[in-house]
Amino acid sequence: MPNSKPDIYITTPLYYVNSHPHIGHTFTTVVADILKRYYTQMGKKVYFLTGTDEHGEKIALAAEKAGKSVEAFTDENSARFKSVWDTMEIGYDDFIRTTEERHKKVVRNLLQKLYNSGDIYFASYEGNYCLGCERFVTDAELVDGKCKDHGTEPKKVKEENYFFKMSKYSDALKKEFESKPDIIRPEWYRREVLGYLNDKIDDLCISRPKERVSWGIELPFDEKFVTYVWFDALLNYVSAIGYPDDSFKDYWNVSEHFLAKDILRTHTVYWGTMLIAAGIPLYKHLNVHGYWNMSGMKMSKSLGNVIEPSAFKEKYGDEGLRFFFLREMKWGDDADFTIERFISRYNTDLANNYGNLISRTLGMVEKYYVGQDSLSVKNNLPKQHKLKDSLKTLIESYKKDFSVCEFYKTLECMWALFDEANKYIADSKPWDIAKTGNKADLDAVIMPVLEVIRITTYMLGPVMPKVSKSILSELGTTNDTNVSFDDFCSWGFVDKMNSKYSNKKFFNRIEEEKPEGV
Ligand code: MSP
Asked: N or C, where is the chain less crowded by C-beta within 10 Å?
């Protein structure tokens, strides 16, 4: 349980434990981690929740198939998610499992509350059930009779169950989404949701008879049934922060959910109506991204086209992957994940462009300032400079675009600045100036470029924490001080930098003619 009020409360979906973590899950979790580091850099207090979704028919069947007890199976696979996130150095503050008592207690409590208020009733139902999605799907959602995400035919299910009066709250939910233009990012997903809400919304079947599915949270008012897995899992976002204790509001009021479009309907129609019925305000923002595809198909366990993050990290490291994630996917759109594309981005953007700017600049400092103990940056930096103006534009983009997940905009702007700095060096020819021995002229060229490297590297800290730290320390400065973002990014903030370098290469080109895949 958290114990102090955050400025931002970040959540990822709870991942199903029938699967092992792949690049798709990793993306959402890495973005949450990057934003935690970003907001922390901005001086904000962040609380970050992730975890695993462990009940329901799909998980029970997967355990059976694996020949394990469902408890052992869920323990093992939940631990796997946790260990991969630890390997990837994800800075989550809490990892919740839906099988934990702290969560089950809240689910039972809310079910009883809605039952008492008349929002849950008993009836019989018939519909098409997609096991992959763990929900009933409408005919309009099927393509050639199959689920478009899982490529499987839903099965007909007819049974008596408990229902949540979702339809009763659909107008209220529509009003909420209409009156909050930026509640869903990007905006076009909000329009998609308003489209769902224009259609008739059915009530939600929120139980499963134990005789068919026993792996779930027993209904507090009927022991013959367990809770439907979505009605259980969605509540994690409040069970982890102490709902129904009043203190949960400190977190909830600043909640930012991160997820892909596959679970947009459940996070708007289901979760939204559940919140209204429970008397809880809607989340602050729903940040919805597209799919990582491989060969045009969503990367997923059921399609068998997954890349494992740990194997990827072992081969290529994880910092390049974090950069690639943000640079390559426009928030909301789908993107293609191929090793070739990753290598090309890595070599072009990191090794050639940024990496080269660093090594040539530090190489020049080493050569032209030989004999000096350190570089006096602050006193020898021109007050006005075109690189300073470009940095100002970049800092504005970082502040604005990162906070609304438009990462690629800032990165494009940053790489344009690296191009500008590389060209500036080529045009200014410091190697000729050095021959004249005119130190002031040399400073006027070198110091602004060093400032570009220092400030951009600091801004890349949330994206590539390890390499950013090691470049800054090579420069003779650090990012883990109590200095504010604005101070650290101000032109000439650092008095002195190193004048001697280790000739370390921060990004080695990946030389692979034909990547084997991982
Ligand atoms: N258990 C539910 C979520 C319950 S939240 C209360 C679930 N689990 S899941 O394991 O299927 O995870 C889905 C999420 O994983 C997506 O919304 C997204 O965050 C991430 N991704 C899984 N595959 C992905 C891609 N191929 N591309 C992008 N994100 C992907 O749904």
From this structure: N
Ligand 1 centroid to 432 CA: how many Å? 56
Q: Would you state the pLDDT for residue 514? A: 58
Catalytic residue among 5, 20, 301, 399: 301
Q: Between the CA of residue 14 and those of 36, 55, 161, 230, 280, what are the distances in Å?
A: 18, 11, 25, 10, 20
Burial 134-144 (b: 16+ CB within 10 A, else e): bbbbeeebeee
Amino acid, single-letter form, for residue 41: Q
Q: In 3D, which of 180, 261, 230 has the Cα closest to residue 53?
A: 230
- Spatial distance between the Cα atoms of 279 and 272, rounded to a whole number of angstroms: 11
| The pair of three-digit structure tokens given for residue 194, joined into one six-digit string | 């308003």
Provide the pLDDT for residue 241: 97
Burial of 359 (0-12, 13-18, 19+ CB in 10 A): middle
Average pLDDT of the chain to the nearest whole number: 95
- Could you tell me the pLDDT band of residue 330, with boundaries at 50, 70 and 90? very high
Q: Is 259 in the pocket of ligand 1 (CB under 6 A)?
A: yes
Give me the half-sphere count of Cα atoms (radius 13 Å) on the Cβ side of residue 145. 3
Of the ranges 149-153, 293-297, 450-454, 503-507, the best mean pLDDT one: 450-454
Handedness of CA 333, 334, 340, 342 (dihedral sign): positive
- Kindly name the residue from 55, 103, 150, 313 that is annotated as catalytic: 150
Smallest CA-to-CA distance from 166 within 279, 257, 276, 263 is with 276
75-93 CB burial, b ≥16 within 10 A, e <16? bebbebbbebbeebebebe
Judged against a pLDDT cut of 80, whether residue 262 lies above it is answered with yes
Helix axes 187-198 and 170-179, enclosed angle (nearest 10): 150
The answer to whether the pTM exceeds 0.85 is yes
For ligand 1, say whether the CB of 53 is within 6 Å of any of its atoms.
yes
* Residue type, position 438, single letter: N
**Contact, 15 vs 78, CB < 8 A?**
no
Tell me if 231 CB under 6 Å of ligand 1. Answer: no
pLDDT band with cut points at 50, 70 and 90 for residue 502: confident
Lowest mean pLDDT among 3-7, 257-261, 350-354, 388-392: 3-7
What's the mean pLDDT in 458-472?
Answer: 97
403 contact partners, CB below 8 Å, separation of at least 6: 38
> pLDDT of 50-60, one tens digit each?
999 999 999 99
- Strand order in 184-185's β-sheet? 94-97, 46-53, 8-16, 255-260, 285-289, 184-185
